[in-house]
UniProtKB/TrEMBL annotation:
Region span, Disordered: 1-54
Species assigned in the record: Fusarium oxysporum (strain Fo5176)
Protein name: BHLH domain-containing protein
Top-level taxonomy: Eukaryota, Fungi, Dikarya, Ascomycota, Pezizomycotina
GO molecular function, one term: protein dimerization activity
Domain BHLH: 63-128
Biased composition (Basic residues): 43-53
SUPFAM superfamilies registered for this protein in UniProt: HLH, helix-loop-helix DNA-binding domain (SSF47459)
Length: 149
């Protein structure tokens, strides 16, 4: 379970999904292209529900349920889109870092679960923190070198 899946090279092309006009805070990403993405999220398989006759409900209850169901569906759709954008950003970032050398990868037709996307994000954040520490050490070392001379 500790082993994380490596992003397939076919998906690490650095392509990003076009953003909606409602995502103004995400437009501040620097250096990322605004082209359609090819990320694929895994979806839960569903069995058809058994239809059971229920007594008729009042119209206001039916209408309230429909409104609630529509709101929930919109929420799930927005959440899925945000996970897809996160996966696209992670893949674009990884593609920039690797720039040529490949590692083991999975089949490009494979989708990623939301948990896997969060694991990729956590790993990327940890890698960036380590890189930040390394670069800070280099800057301090260079500063010490210039002050001695």
């Amino acid at each position: 379970m500790d082993k994380a899946k490596v992003l397939p090279p076919a998906l690490t092309a650095g392509l990003l999904e076009r953003r909606d006009s409602t995502t103004s805070n995400e437009d501040s990403l620097v250096g990322l292209e605004k082209t359609p993405t090819q990320v694929k999220m895994r979806s839960a398989s569903r069995r058809p529900k058994k239809v059971v006759k229920k007594p008729a409900l009042p119209a206001h209850v039916v209408q309230a349920r429909e409104c609630h169901n529509n709101v929930e569906k919109q929420y799930r759709t927005r959440l899925k889109q945000k996970f897809e954008r996160l996966l696209a950003v992670l893949q674009a970032s990884k593609a920039k870092d690797e720039s040529g050398h490949e590692e083991d990868s999975e089949a490009p037709g494979c989708g990623y679960s939301r948990g896997e996307v969060l694991d990729f994000a956590r790993q990327r954040i940890l890698a960036l923190e380590e890189e930040n520490r390394h670069l800070s050490d280099q800057v301090q070392h260079l500063d010490r070198g210039f002050t001695i001379v």
